[in-house]
Amino acid sequence: MKKSLSFIVSLLVSGWLMAQMVAGPMVGHVEFRTATIWMHLDPSIREVSVQYIEKNLADKAAQQVKVSLPGGEFNIATALLSGLEPGKTYNYSIYTGKGPAIAQGEVRTQSLWQWRTKAPDFSFLAGSCHFTNERVFDRPGKPYGGDSSIFETMAKEKADFMLWLGDNWYTREVDYYSAWGLMKRPATDRSLKVMQPLLKAMPQYAIWDDHDYGWNDADRSFPLKEASRDAFMKFWANPSYGMNGQGIYSKFTWNDVDVFLLDDRWWRANDNLPDSVDGRPNSDKTMFGKEQMDWLKNALLSSKSNRNISFRIIATGSQVLNPVSRFDVFKKFEPEYNDFMEFLKEAKIPGIVFLTGDRHHSEIIEVKQAGMYPLYDITSSPLTSGTHVFGGPEANNPFRVVGVDQFQNYARISFSGAGKERTMQVSFIGLKGEVYKTWSIQAQNLSF
Fold first, then answer.
1. In terms of Cα–Cα distance, which of 368, 336, 344, 174 is closest to 267?
2. At CA 124, angle to CA 21 and CA 78, rounded to 5?
3. Rounded Cα distance, 252 and 90, in Å
4. 364 within 8 A of 400, measured Cβ to Cβ
């Protein structure tokens, strides 16, 4: 009887602790000596304490950071763990009072290899288009969301981080007409039980596309864009979010790879704006906008001067290169696209690879042009939303070097080798870990 009572009490305590954590903890941006931990807590909790200590050093005193919370329905906080050491694993515990920890996890800092040894081998995951069914608010008919067990498969990967490529949740009519709705949709999706292991397993980075920014094909005229930006900043722990209160673009470095996170919505012209005016390309039809493009060009020049960088990944929600796409590819925003391509040639920026989402299929597009090494656009989609069959002018796209349609999938992008042999490998992986297609490129093939 005592044993049974003890078991029941243990279950009740465990349930109470779990109830305090609505979603998370999620690992956010990680550097050499700092790491971020995101959490969504019960509205009653107004302060948390995060204690952390290097793994296997239980005899040392733990460090601690206290974080105040706003309360209310979206009671979210991000804790910054500081004073860490490079290349170390730390255990952390989250407390709301004198009782036991409500959540625990671990995080590993980046290794300080520069000027000391070759770049470490590593990998990251990428994907876009996550739709969670909610029948009462979904369109009638067949549910659009697919099998969410893909997140369980991803959580088991020994990857260094995850990069969400937009449409990370899908706002619907009940969401995108109010600031509350723009918060409620990510809160609903983020709290799913199936998501929690992936959020804890590795650092999470993100960009957005139309469906997690606003409505379908939302552009710079979206009236609640500031509220949408607030929601994005609330639910992700990126290193930064644009400049001067505009957009969500950012950049981070992982080993020998610079990752540029672009915002393809904040400054974007409507897709139906005329391509030309008085016979000339319409310079007002932009996808990224002058402010962001100026930042990107300067950031790429800065990256070029760093001899430790082998690859420069430019991530954005919409495809960049696809010449036969019927949809909103960057190439169709002609003046801005041509200007950027000329910049890459004139500045001789090496190692450029585009990483995109949106399309509900995965593929790698190759485009060759005079004065430039071949450019590649790696599209990874969908995680859980609807799929389709390659059709129309894209059925046999001559620019496609790898293609996966009709299957939910994510990308595993790995880096290995040293010097001229440094290689990036891309694998498109299915629900249960099956590898559909694999492709690779060496850094020396992306140079002038």
1. 336
2. 30
3. 21
4. yes
